[in-house]
Amino acid sequence: MTFRKFTTQEEVNEVYRRRARFYDWSANAYYLIGFREWAYRRRAVEALQLRPAATVVEIGCGTGLNFSLLEQRIGSTGRLIGVDPSPEMLDQARRRVAASGWNNVDLVQARAADFDFPAGVDGVFSAFALTLEPLFDEVITKAAAAISPGGRFVLLDLRMPENWLRRLGPVLILLVRPFAVSLEVAKRPPWKSLQRHFSQYNYWEGYFGVVYIATGQRAGGPNPG
Questions:
Q1: Rg for the chain (alpha carbons), in Å?
Q2: What are phi and psi of 195, to 5 degrees?
Q3: Helix (H) / strand (E) containing 63
């Protein structure tokens, strides 16, 4: 049997086109194996240290699962820009925004590598998405130049663990294949790019080293936590 490697944007887009309507439900299904997804999402958003009226960009926003967490931080006077290449996922995000009555959300259909960050953003966030972008280093480079002094880029994502679980790599990949993750994708190290582009950097691992939160902060603020 031949499996897709999900190394092209077209392959990834096809997966999320099919999964858009059921994405939220399927993402929560990992609780069945003890993966505390929402705890990781909350911890990652907290690491942004956003203040009311802040401007934040979410790369790979999908259906907008993180919007409520971000909105709690920035308030109605803030600005949230959600970027995603999938029109089907963004359709779901628009429904979420309309149902919640948020008037400060802009949705942009674009590949992460093609998005031009507005200057002076207070934070950039990506959850379980940036690893799917082969040009992740280019994305982080552009974000680092756009973030205001003291602003942060927080990356929540999956990786191949470096402990004994690495021997179970093929099994781990099967668990996340529904979200366009292959062995080739799992080997990408966007956290290393974040460390390279930000002088202040923090890294945390959870779930036996499978999930991580990496925080890069532009000089001019307190150390990232």
A1: 16
A2: -65, -35
A3: none
Band (170; pLDDT cuts 50, 70, 90): low
CATH number at residue 43: 3.40.50.150
In a domain, 144, yes or no: yes
- Token couple for 176: 């996340």
Over residues 23-44, the pLDDT tens digits come to 665 666 554 445 688 899 999 9
Residues 6+ apart with CB under 8 A from 178: 15, 19, 26
User: What's the CA gap between 89 and 75, in Å, rounded?
Assistant: 24
Classified as helix, coil or strand, 25 is helix
- The per-residue pLDDT for range 43-84, each reduced to its tens digit, is 999 999 999 999 999 999 999 999 999 999 999 999 999 999
Instruction: State pLDDT tens for residues 199-210.
Output: 999 999 987 788
The answer as to whether 70 is a domain residue is yes
Q: Is residue 197 part of a domain?
A: yes
34 occurs within a structural domain: yes
Number of structural domains in the chain:
1
